[in-house]
Amino acid sequence: MGSGRGTRRIGRAEHPRRPRRGARAALPAPGRDRALPASADGAGVLVVLNRSAGTSVVRSDPANVLRERLPRAELRFLEPGEEPGAVVAEALARPVPPRIVGVCGGDGSVGAVAHVARAAGVPLLVVPGGTFNHFARTAGVASADDAVDALQAGEGVRADVAELAFGETPPITVLNSASVGVYPDVIALRERLRPRFGKWLAGLLAAERMLRRSEPVAVVVGGRRAEVWALFVGVGRNDRGIHAPLQRRELDDGVLDVRVLHRGSRTGAIAALAFGQRTASVLRRLRLVPERVEAFTSTGLTIDVRPRNGLPPGFVHDGEVALDAPAAASADLSAPGYRTRVRVVPAAMDVYRPAARPVAG
Question: Global pTM?
Fold first, then answer.
């Protein structure tokens, strides 16, 4: 992709960087700093905002920050039922398309827009606007102000992604992780409960219900069959202290981080998948989660997923549940179930983020 080549970095003198408003990570963000096209006032920038994404009670409204600091940016609020990727694709098909596309939302929205941005060869502006914001956190973008700082200064990084394909269908761009097993069940139920209970409580209720009624999934990886509670494929290396690789530590290490939680205790499986690193470490000392999980790295793998209770299990990618694609792919495989392929794509796209190291001069 050549989205940053031959582009002047304009507007730095007219729009000096503001003091940081949000908390920045104590350690530098991963990846090599990279010069990207700058926009001092938002000219040439389209930002899609997903109002249905989860929100943070401590974060200021990103839309207000964008209006104030990028007055010439096109802010496009999604209507109910609109898909962020489709909205961006339509904008990029205009006679004069945006030269930079942005997204304010959760990881699912970011992944959908990233897929379209990759295809068009334009850089991506990620504005945290969801509950977890896994990709934005890894990149070092903790707030809307961080995103705007990077855009105005023309600072960014080139990040790896993964491609996930079901059968012979075109691949989907994945930024954080993809998984099959208990976790997709939890996510699917959480989304059904979310309108009534909110995202956090719905997640807890969904995990508890899955504890009582979920069954393992049979998979074949590399010719080896196993019954698993969950199989996760993380983009880039994740923290070793957790069983579910949802928060990548690296942006450009060129590998997939695979974790396989084999069939065992139901309580242990849910505890291992439902909690973060700190809580998981406490539960591990209490022997409520498995001590070990099979883990390895790869650049690509093929996973055959067998039916469960006569139906193809769903696949989750970046928090979004895929049900239709696995069902369609199951018809293309001679054996029962469906086949999915995951591969890492190094240096796949340019993403704005504040420079990890101070710029000299």
Answer: 0.81
**Other beta carbons less than 10 A from residue 54's beta carbon:** 18
Rounded Cα distance, 297 and 347, in Å: 18
pLDDT of residue 12: 33
Angle ∠(276,143,318) on CA atoms, nearest 5? 45
Q: Which of 214, 245, 203, 207 is nearest to 314 (CA)?
A: 214
Q: What is the pLDDT of residue 183?
A: 75
Q: How far apart are CA 214 and CA 247, in angstroms?
A: 25
Residue 318 contacts residue 174 (beta carbons within 8 Å): yes
Please enumerate, as own/partner, the contacts of 332-336 that have beta carbons within 8 Å and a separation of 24 or more. Answer: 332/167, 332/168, 333/167, 333/304, 335/304, 335/306, 336/306, 336/307
Q: How much is the pLDDT for 122?
A: 98
Nearest-CA neighbor of 159 among 249, 96, 239, 98? 249
Q: Which residue has the tokens 């827009």?
A: 113
Position 191 scores a pLDDT of 77
Question: Which residues in the chain come in under a pLDDT of 70?
Answer: 1-28, 53-59, 199-200, 211, 241-242, 265-292, 323-335, 357-361
Please report which residue ranges of 246-296 form alpha helices under DSSP H. Answer: 266-274, 277-285
For residue 205, the model assigns a pLDDT of: 79
Cα–Cα distance measured from residue 291 to residue 287, given in angstroms and rounded to the nearest whole number: 8
What's the burial of 188, exposed, middle or buried (CB within 10 Å: 0-12/13-18/19+)? middle
Angle at 119 between CA 6 and CA 97, to 5 degrees: 60
Helix (H) or strand (E) holding 119: helix 107-120
Give the pLDDT score at 10: 27
DSSP assignment string, 239-258: -TT-SS--SBS-SSS--EEE
Q: 144 with 119: CB under 8 angstroms?
A: no
